[in-house]
């Protein structure tokens, strides 16, 4: 005999499995990031609120929080986004067919263009200001300069393993490379002593810096 209770239970529709939730609107996320990048440059970290970012992005404050959680996370993502745009990961991929010098020139040019951009100079001045909290400086460092230095260190490691470079301390070599690229030109800009250098000056500066770096670390023929 059929159990009426079991029959009734079997006639009910199966419960739907819990879904992953509504997908995030990528267009709104991009608008929030763009607004955050512009406002952090214009007003510094302390002068920016989630309300002002929401207003500039044309979204609600709730939408900003749903995408990024808090202002610290949004600041970190804004710094990362800028670095990825101007120094894409593809620059640091070891190309089996690409010449080492050409790849280093590509990295050097992109890095120099990034650090001498008006937005980057403005943010770096904010980081150097005495009233900037150390936690903000740390977030900036990890999201921007540290990410870039780590990427170059791994690139140099791969090229060393291929026998093209003689390097034992990859992170130190990466820092030396970027210090060469910054040079005196960047210091002058940070001090407000000169505007963005002419393209010909920047090109020559990067080429000479790469030549100097390779003179120190390129593999030498066996005698």
From TrEMBL:
Keywords: DNA-binding. Residues 49-68 bind DNA. Residues 26-86 form the HTH tetR-type domain. Transmembrane segments: none annotated. Residues 1-21 have a biased composition (Low complexity). InterPro entries: Homeodomain-like_sf, HTH-type_TetR-like_transc_reg, HTH_TetR, Tet_transcr_reg_TetR-rel_C_sf, TetR_C_Proteobacteria. Pfam families: TetR_C_7, TetR_N. Residues 1-23 are annotated as: Disordered. The keyword DNA-binding applies. It comes from Stenotrophomonas aracearum. This is TetR/AcrR family transcriptional regulator.
